[in-house]
Amino acid sequence: MTAGNERRVPRAAHKIARPPILKIYGLQCALVLLSSFILFPVDKVMAYSAVIGGMISVVPNAYFARQVFRYTGAAFAREVARSFYRGESGKFVTTVMLFAATFALVQPLQVFVLFLAYLIVMLLNAVILARYALRGNRI
What we know:
- This protein is mainly α.
- It has one domain (about 20-135).
- Helices cover about 75% and strands about 0% of the residues.
- It comes from Zhongshania aquimaris.
- Keywords: Cell membrane, Membrane, Transmembrane, Transmembrane helix.
């Protein structure tokens, strides 16, 4: 085997279990939509501000998770590092662009509700991932 083949086909690579990304971010989207349906009778602007804030949190985090878990194993260490950098920079740029587009295009908007939904979904993400890690990779 050549050096290039060894890199593509690792002999004994230890795999880190990939978290169920679709399940995690699907749950977050469902909770954001549920909160919006609850808020809709109270105030329509509040309801869509909550959806936008929640989605500004979910979409970049889902992109980051997708990038990070593209490669696994010691044989792909360089690709793993690149995917972390690509994921983090993409997450940052996407978050900034979504906030900028929201403030430029959505009127009226309840800014407090937007940021509150964003922060709650960020905390929800941390709680779900901590629960996933503590339960032995089961949600």
